[in-house]
Design goal:
By secondary structure, the chain is α+β, with helices and mostly antiparallel strands. It has 27 helices and 28 strands. The chain is globular and about 85 Å long. The structure holds zinc ion (ZN).
């Protein structure tokens, strides 16, 4: 058992001079790093990973050192403690792992090219230069970089370049910052730039495979986001520039490197003339998320990775706050309700889930902390609760204080609560600790007992769960004044129900706005009252009714069969959030039917009944000037109509395809994926398959690429599935960053599942070698657990993954995902018959 020590305890760097000489041709680089700092002991350690160290000097003299790959260390013996300057020379390889310094590959006009970029979060700066690679070890950095430079190439970094000498680019010294936020990139780039009101230069950079106007939308959002945050935080943007760079190969979605934010291409550049509103909203929130980090995360950084939530939960809330201010017509909080809320409620209901704040020491475990549903989605819901309790004025005053106190330094959750606490009279820390330190969330049961309205809380589990008596401080947000602001007790009585109902004149409800992280189980009387009045509820409340009933069904507190008859009541809604919630429930019914069975035919009939009028209303072609709700609703109903095998819908999509066969890329981005998928599924051929693959290779439009992936992976043709799987390991055709989506597509395809499952088991080693160093690696397991639903697949899943349980970084995911599949298998076993009976009844 290795004991993990923080290197910062023994050596505290204050400044780095980093010189790199990078050669793309040989895929190697040479480096020389000089670190000035305070040695607290004579035996110190500096991080490295994959560096071949040639020499180590302390204050100009050679000193003894050893490299230890188990602990990522260079162990150094210093002659003395105190202020010391350490110089290390080394060489290393460029790898294709999308971590450290790595190449991105792309083509322009048939010519293969590459740009070099970096990804240092969480602990990959040590692959580029020796450093104390811990967030607390903040220092200033002066970068100088030489590379196999071609005429016209651009190099950018956190800070502006100050001079070039003998082919070496010298960058201005940074402010005090963490190693994981250092970044640079070079290659044949195009850019567009502007300046904020306060004089910050803002730029968007991308390869020349993109049209110049694809940079316009992100430039506008980035500029206005920075202006918004400077005002909201009442703290100036701390650097001279803010560059946004799209990298053709990128593991995560985006990375908040200070002053040089990097993005997956599909999350930054977009065609302003043909991009779905939903995609624009997503890209805007990604940009706003990364720019929120420039203060929260970059200016003030978590002290250690256990407080990762401080960075991510906060940025995940602020992306919505910012975009809501920038584009009020988008009602972006609706997207929060249809994406973050369900994702958090789903994952956080599994017994064994991590808490938002979680202890971690082993570097191999750090990447597995980035559980999107918990650290991002649940965490942001926690902060939305805080914002609702405090109000924006107190929140902003608290944040201003937080930045002023901790800027260029580090902080913990307690520091944030202290700053917010002084700005209000609530003990925010005490309330929030019950949510941050405990995994899971409560279901509040509201019931009329002996005429009295009573509330009680208990942890909610979907699947098996062990009750251990957890209790939360729950912001109730009731529509009856008699309910307290916070419920801390296990149960409370609110008073005589008949009197309360009469005095309030409306059904009793909790969690109005769906901003608190709990669900409600109303007893029969209270639920009937709500459902009788459901049409008068706003769309978020209607979403919430469906959301809570679905979760209660998943948790087997009610049966799905009770939910099925309600669906038609919501089917004609013109609200996109209601349709989103409706189709989440409907899609969950698919697990109860065997493909191509009579039960599936019944479910398809239900889908047809739900979607028919909406398809007729909205049509296949977006209309000029239609509402945002209509634009966002159309994909749900078209998808439903195709699942329903609605003959008119299939014919309509085929007709559009045929008319546009030579210009598929120009099909409206809102509906293109359905038109392509329909064609591949119902009119597929090898010629179509080859044509779409060629288009995938050619286009630089990330959304079009995704549409093609979704279409091709839905093929029912066994030969084409075999050809698809052959391409999984051909990185020229399917980039490692995109492979998971292709794998998921084939695995979710009933006709392709066996082949995809065989592939991942047979070639696991290849996968691990190719993307194993990547922080997104474990999500391959999550993808599998999202799909499997039979006892046979569960047994195979266990047989394959249980022997890997002790692999650092995989343990948590394998344990969780086994429970996810077990819960689903049990649920299907218990409810299949009654659900299908209910479907048969409602379609009559
Ligand atoms: Zn983030």
């Amino acid at each position: 058992m290795t004991e993990f020590k923080r290197f910062y305890e023994k050596f505290q760097p204050s400044h780095y001079d980093v010189y790199l000489d990078i050669n793309r041709e040989t895929k190697r680089f040479n480096g020389q790093t000089t670190i000035t700092g305070e040695a607290k002991a004579q035996e110190i350690a500096i991080h490295q990973n994959g560096l071949v160290v040639a020499s180590v000097q302390a204050d100009g003299n050679d000193v003894p050192f050893t490299t230890d790959n188990d602990t990522d260390a260079i162990q150094i013996d210093l002659p003395k403690t105190g202020e010391t300057t350490i110089a290390i020379t080394y060489t290393a390889k460029l790898t294709d792992s999308m971590m450290g310094i790595y190449p991105s590959y792309y083509e322009v006009g048939g010519v293969k090219k590459q740009i070099i970029g970096t990804q240092f979060e969480t602990n990959f700066a040590r692959q580029a230069f020796p450093c104390v690679d811990e967030p607390e070890a903040k220092a200033t950095f002066a970068l100088s970089i030489k590379f196999d430079e071609q005429p016209g190439e651009t190099i950018i970094s956190n800070m502006p370049e100050v001079r070039t000498e003998d082919g070496v680019h010298y960058f201005d010294t940074t402010v005090r910052m963490s190693t994981y936020l250092v970044a640079f990139a070079f290659g044949d780039l195009q850019s567009k730039q502007t300046t904020t009101k306060s004089g910050v230069k803002v730029g968007v950079f991308a390869t020349k495979a993109h049209k110049a106007n694809e940079l316009d939308f992100p430039l506008d959002i980035a500029k206005r986001s920075i202006e918004f945050y400077e005002d909201f935080y009442q703290t100036p943007y701390p650097l001279p520039h803010s560059w946004q760079l799209a990298l053709p190969d990128f593991s995560a979605g985006a990375m908040e490197n200070w002053g040089l934010v990097t993005y997956r291409e599909a999350y930054l550049v977009l065609d302003p003339d043909n991009t779905a509103l939903e995609t624009k909203q997503l890209v805007a929130t990604v940009i706003a998320h990364e720019l929120a980090h420039q203060w929260f995360g970059d200016l003030v950084t978590m002290k250690w990775w256990d407080d990762l939530w401080l960075n991510e939960s906060f940025a995940n809330m602020m992306e919505y706050v910012a975009i809501d201010a920038l584009e009020p017509d988008w009602h972006i909080w609706e997207m929060f309700q249809t994406s973050e809320a369900p994702s958090a409620l789903q994952r956080d209901a599994i017994d064994g889930v991590q808490s938002v704040h979680v202890q971690v020491e082993n570097p191999a475990e750090i990447d597995s902390l980035f559980d999107g549903a918990i650290v991002y989605a649940k965490g942001s819901r926690m902060l939305v609760m805080v914002r609702a309790l405090l109000g924006d004025d107190a929140l902003r005053a608290g944040l201003k204080k937080y930045f002023a106190t901790h800027k260029y330094g580090n902080a913990t959750g307690a520091d944030l609560w202290a700053a917010l606490g002084t700005a209000s009279d609530l003990d925010i820390g005490a309330i929030m600790n019950s949510w941050l330190e405990q995994p899971g969330y409560p279901v509040v049961t509201a019931a009329v007992v002996d005429g009295k309205l009573t509330l009680s809380q208990k942890q909610f589990f979907s699947g098996k769960g062990k009750e251990v008596g957890r209790q939360w401080q729950i912001p109730l947000n009731s529509n009856y004044d008699v309910a307290p602001t916070i419920m801390s007790e296990r149960s409370i009585t609110l008073g005589d129900y008949a009197k309360l109902r009469k005095a309030n004149g409306k059904p009793f409800r909790l969690n109005v706005g769906n901003d608190s992280h709990f669900i409600v189980k109303y007893d029969r009387e209270l639920l009937k009252d709500i459902l009788d009045n459901v049409k008068s509820l706003d769309s978020i409340s209607q979403l919430q009714v469906l959301q809570d009933l679905r979760l209660l069904a998943e948790g087997r507190q009610i049966s799905y069969a009770e939910v099925v008859p309600l669906l038609k009541d919501f089917a004609d809604s013109t609200s996109n959030v209601v349709n989103a919630a409706l189709y989440v429930v409907a899609n969950n019914l698919k697990k109860f039917v065997t493909p191509s069975s009579d039960e599936e035919a019944q479910l398809q009939t239900l889908y047809n009944q739900l979607s028919k009028a909406q398809v007729a209303r909205l049509g296949w072609t977006p209309k000029a000037g239609e509402s945002n709700d209509d634009q966002l609703t159309r994909p749900y109903v078209l998808s439903a109509a195709l699942y329903a095998k609605n003959a008119d819908a299939i014919a309509a999509a085929h007709k559009i395809f045929t008319a546009n066969a030579d210009k598929l890329e120009t099909l409206p981005a809102d509906t293109r994926v359905f038109i392509l998928r329909n064609e591949v599924k119902n009119f597929g051929s090898t010629a179509l398959f080859d044509k779409l693959f060629a288009a995938h290779h050619q286009t630089a439009d990330g959304n079009y690429k995704e549409d093609i992936c979704s279409a091709l992976t839905s093929t029912p043709d066994a030969d084409l599935i075999a050809r698809l799987i052959e391409k999984f390991e051909d990185t020229d055709t399917i980039k490692p960053q995109d492979l998971r989506a292709w794998f998921r597509g084939v695995l979710a395809n009933e006709k392709g599942q066996q082949a995809a499952w065989d592939w991942i088991r047979n070639d696991w080693q290849w996968l691990e070698d190719t993307v194993g160093g990547d922080m997104e690696f474990t999500t391959y397991i999550t993808v599998i657990a999202g799909i499997f639903r039979t006892p046979e697949r569960l047994a195979e899943f266990k047989a394959f993954f249980e022997p890997k349980l002790n692999t650092p970084g995989l343990t948590r995911e394998i344990t969780m995902d086994t429970k996810v599949i077990e819960g689903r298998v049990d649920l299907i076993e218990a409810q299949k018959a009654s659900v299908n009976e209910a479907v048969a009844k409602v379609i009559k």
